[in-house]
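## retry 2 of 3
previous attempt timed out at serialization; input unchanged, resubmitting
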Amino acid sequence: MPSLNLIITALDSFMQLVREHQERAFHILKRAFSLHKSHSIKDMENTFQLVKNIIPPLTTKKHKGQDGRIGIVGGCQDDSPNAVHEVEKWLPRLHALVVGPGLGREDALLENVKGILEASKARAIPVVIDADGLWLIAQQPTLIQGYQKAVLTPNHVEFIRLSEAVLRDPVDSSDRRGAVLRLSQALGNVTVVQKGEQDVISDGEQVLECNLQGSNRRCGGQGDLLSGFLGVLVQWALHAGPEKTNGFSPLLVAAFGACSLTRQCNHQAFQKHGRSTTTSDMIAEIRPAFNRLFET
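## retry succeeded, writing output
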């Protein structure tokens, strides 16, 4: 018969092993979602369910525009001196605004964009900012400082530019989740989506990572699709409210959904077209990708 001391020692060793496995499992979960609140999204499927919750049902009783009217501020050869005034006429009808695709960096145009952003904030309109819109924000971060209905979608280079402009410190490339969290906090909890091999998303309180399979083909214009998807999903999420997102930030859930949809479109297009895949090929995959992710 083993002695009592041996049994106690064996039990201690067993309990230590259990604790180590629990701690390892916790860190794996934390790396997967890196959430900074006591309540956490348990797995990827639950995260997709939150996105599904915000999608409005189709019904014959709705009319055009009832599920959201999205404005896009992009490139234009006219630099009308009263452009802001003209756009302001449309703002009362819009539910969200996407700023940046094809915009360019011409001074007069960016000055108009600045006025449009200020007018949009005054009306509490959600804004998604991408591409050269991010160039403007890097020059003048106060434009969206503390505006928690804004979502920024920087790629690697744009993220470094933004971080150095806002934080005044070099980016720690070894800790992407921490870097995105810090930038979001420094901007006053503006939601940040850093695009990359995995998309890292933070609202300054929580961090999500979207690693749904895409492809190795990064075609030009893919970010435009992401910002468009975000414009729609942000409107849907805010309209649905936190009760449909289990208390999580609606913008965080919307960003996860938009990243997932972009990646799924990219993956499906690449399966058909390989190295010749273009963004136009991805557009053709929106319907089947959306159905696969959110309506099955």
